[in-house]
């Protein structure tokens, strides 16, 4: 092996300038002298070939231009953990003071003699390292643990470590570092393309206190997650973003303490994969952003019933997916603990042009929701959404067999499948009256828009704003808009308006169920907001 090339170089992670890669070959190359490293680069366009050079296959790459040869002296094989820590926190021999002769320290141009100064400085560095609790050595080229037990002697109080984007080649290296940190609670090893164990092996106690673990962009599979998870007995948060995880398996006897799971940016095979993780008893937050799912279905529960799946799930993120049917939103009402939902950028949201109506439909469909797309749902907003939902679909209800007489109220299965909460809303507010259903506007913004100025007369610090609102918009919907616009706490809004035609007079907008056009509001009028 050439000088400077580690004996275990095959499979090692290296950097070369700002580029990262994995060594796939070491040896000679035809018609050249000396040793070369064949590198598969993380950037698929960084190389010149796929490991095939002049008709000879030296190594293999996933991409046609993913590989190239470099000389060993161009490769950075990394440093041990403690060296990186000392460099990052200015606690190595080369910083703070400049050493002259063995027992002298140079301050500017003056040399001062000290006896045993080296040992004193080392003791001071040890004290400073021992004080470190939260350590970040991101992008510090860490590749190995260093001498055995050196970390535990030097950094005994570490609890939180950021090791992201380094040169870690295997999970064993992570264990070698973590096993020397007795009270490790948080570990981030994201952006390290590592080898993970493929068979069940001895379970290390290195992670016996670990609560938070980030493994984003590490190329770990779900099978490998479950094997490693045997050593994570108290883990509460697990981040697995961007790992090409497509298939899940049931986590039997592992991950049972998990409260948060992030699977974002993994293209799952289908929404039914979620059933395999649905029995995690303590899972409160599930992040499924950009996972390619197109539907959600809980087959164990019928209309108006709660599923036994995800019993503790409070917060769900399904934004940036392919969900096109409102039936998936109906399914979310089956989750017994759901309180917060993120669902932006899904095709079903394109079926409704009016964003206010869209929000109301989601609120009305999921009974326990308190936060939608990071906005709090106030009680008045929920009441308005449910009242409007009951009215909007009133005609469909009647045509499907609904009736004002409870004994004759038997809408079809198809209607109940599309609107599973409708009967509950009728019980809560009463069935929609016949007068409410006359001339019902369609669920698109085809009607005339009013340009209105909105002011808060008692809050001069609030600037007036101009809004275009449909004349069919109910006062309740206007209030919902204003709650978010002015970030008003859960107090009761009072609305009125002034018109140039009614000089000096204010007209109260006192009926939440009436549309703006009921009050003869016109473009150019001013809506006054008080609370």
From TrEMBL:
Ranges for domain Ubiquitin-like: 450-529
Keywords: Acetylation, Chaperone, Cytoplasm, Cytoskeleton, Leucine-rich repeat, Phosphoprotein, Repeat
GO biological process, one term: cytoskeleton organization
InterPro entries cross-referenced by the UniProt entry: CAP-Gly_dom_sf, CAP-Gly_domain, Leu-rich_rpt, LRR_dom_sf, Ubiquitin-like_dom, Ubiquitin-like_domsf, Ubl_TBCE
Superkingdom to which the source organism belongs: Eukaryota
Matching Pfam families: CAP_GLY, Ubiquitin_2
GO-annotated cellular components: cytoskeleton
Domain CAP-Gly, residue spans: 27-71
Record carries keyword Membrane: no
Protein localization: Cytoplasm, Cytoskeleton
Function: Tubulin-folding protein; involved in the second step of the tubulin folding pathway and in the regulation of tubulin heterodimer dissociation. Required for correct organization of microtubule cytoskeleton and mitotic splindle, and maintenance of the neuronal microtubule network.
UniProt-recorded name of the protein: Tubulin-specific chaperone E
Lineage of origin: Eukaryota, Metazoa, Chordata, Craniata, Vertebrata
This protein's encoding gene: Tbce
